[in-house]
Design a protein that fits this description.
The protein is α/β, with parallel strands linked by helices. The protein has helices spanning about 40, 65, 70-75, 85-115, 130-135, 220-240, 250-265, 280-290, 295-305, 310, 320-325, 350-355, 375-380, 410-420, 435-450; strands at about 1-5, 15-20, 25-30, 55-60, 80-85, 140, 145-150, 155-160, 165-175, 180-185, 205-210, 240-245, 275, 315, 335-340, 360-365, 385, 390-395, 395-400, 425-430, 450-455, 460.
Length: about 475
């Protein structure tokens, strides 16, 4: 058995993809898009390894860096089943359709410039038709029940606690009369985070692929982060400033909305105007509402005492571009949630251009910011940034609330890893910047005495 690292290796945090090739079959675990640096995005136009005939795809969760190359399979003529949990399929439909729309719009804008320069046009990475072709291949699977996805390969999905429908995947592979268990963590969520249930680890593995987004450090405790959030909100209310929240439409938007509802219900803040300026986040919130079976006990108890609609009467859902533009006329205090989460596009850029240079503005960074993104520049305290080609001074107060991250910190990663330690599996660390991978490697070696592999993209691991 060989496993080809087709993404999220060599210090990359995006583009997760692993080909698992046996003497009888080949399956792809995740098929993610590279995001962030321009040099990373060139990897999106990838070609599958030679001599590989794909039998199936298994998806851990819906985020674009785990699903964003699925339309390329349809584009290249593949017609194979793509297995995922029901909530992941619903979220993937939302995310891939949005991605295809953005790619088409970006290509159209660039082609207008190329036409004026007398240069040939470019084609988007994939089209809406390619995205629909990928979605037609998706097949729902339950949690905790093995499914034969290819000859000699059974897959089991278990809760990962990262986003709605997220999972870790265990492949049980039979080859030459022997059985091996390969576990892919996917993205793991922090324990005790609100709304979703905690991750549920497997207990058997011959090899483990573990993510390392925050492998070298822990987040501030969630309760402390909530206190910080409450303080920032009340400071902004007192000063009349706007609060800008670059928001991942799936997960972070729902968390921030829930926290604001909790604050209003418990009189931690006086209700004030809130804008969910993201059509995608609005649709994702509807999907969340339809999957309460995936919520934790605390979320269910909160809902039992009254709906979020009761608490968030001051929240306006902004669907159209006109709705978004109208926010510019809204005086502070107010809170604006808008995509994209890493500030590499979307409506948040317009709000930044209008407000970053104002000292009374607050910016809340509530998720991972990849190297090369505008969000990372703000986290790293840049004095100036460029938005739509214009130099903008950063006078706003930028807060990084790592405790709201949807990714597990080092302690939670080690806890998850500890469930396999007695089996002495081979450990492969991916999906993290170099410092994060090295930090997690050192911690696993110290805690469990296990050696780890840190492969580059394109590496082949033999079992």
């Amino acid at each position: 058995m060989n496993i080809h690292i087709a993404g999220a290796g060599g210090g990359e945090v995006t583009g997760s993809a692993y080909y698992v090739q046996t003497d009888r079959a080949c399956v792809l675990v995740d098929c993610g898009q590279f995001q962030g640096k321009r040099e990373s995005e060139k990897f999106n136009r990838w070609k599958p390894p030679k001599r590989i005939k794909l039998d199936a795809v298994a998806i851990t969760h819906a985020h674009l860096d785990h699903t964003g190359r699925l339309p390329l399979l349809a584009q290249k003529g593949h017609r194979v089943p793509v297995y995922a949990t029901p909530a992941t399929i619903e979220m993937t439909s939302l995310i891939l359709r949005d991605s295809a729309h953005i790619l088409a719009a970006d290509a159209a804008r660039k082609n207008r410039k190329l036409a004026r320069a007398g240069e040939p046009p470019i084609t988007p990475l994939y089209s809406p038709e390619d995205a629909e072709g990928a979605l037609r291949m998706m097949r729902p699977v339950p949690y905790q029940e093995p499914v034969e996805i290819a000859p000699g390969i059974r897959a089991t999905w278990t809760e990962a606690g990262h986003m709605l429908g997220s999972a870790s995947i265990q492949l049980t592979v039979t080859e030459d009369g022997r059985e091996k268990k390969i576990v892919f963590s996917g993205d793991l969520g922090p324990r005790s985070a609100p709304i979703l249930r905690d991750y549920e680890p497997f207990h058997e593995a011959d090899m483990v692929f573990i993510e390392s987004t925050y492998g070298s450090r822990n987040h501030r405790p969630f309760d402390e982060t909530v206190e910080q959030f409450v303080t920032i909100v009340n400071d902004a209310i007192a000063s009349g400033g706007k609060i800008l929240v670059p928001t991942f439409a799936v997960g972070r938007a729902q968390l921030i909305a829930s926290l604001l509802g909790w604050m209003f219900r418990n009189r931690k803040a006086t209700p004030f105007p809130i804008f969910m300026d993201s059509p995608m986040a609005i649709e994702a919130s509807k999907i969340y509402a339809q999957h309460r079976e995936l919520f934790d006990d605390a979320a269910l108890k909160f809902i039992a005492k009254g709906t979020m609609r009761d608490e968030l009467k001051t929240m306006k859902l902004c669907v159209t571009a006109e709705d978004s533009k109208a926010i510019n006329d809204q005086p502070g205090p107010c809170l604006i949630m808008a995509g994209a989460g890493m500030c590499n596009g979307g409506r948040i850029l317009h709000h930044f251009k209008a407000n970053l240079w104002k000292p009374e503005t607050h910016v809340l960074m509530v998720g991972y910011q990849a190297v090369g993104t505008l969000g990372r520049l703000l986290v790293d305290r840049a004095e100036y940034v460029k938005i739509f080609g214009e130099k903008i001074a950063v006078k706003a107060d930028v807060h990084t609330l790592g405790g709201f991250s949807a990714h597990a910190g080092q302690t939670d990663l080690l806890n998850w890893m500890g469930h396999f330690a007695d089996a002495k599996p081979k450990v492969v660390i991916t999906h993290g910047e170099s410092a994060s991978r090295l930090g997690l490697e050192a911690a696993i070696r110290k805690e469990f005495g296990l050696s780890c592999s840190l492969p580059n993209m394109g590496a082949v691991i033999a079992i």
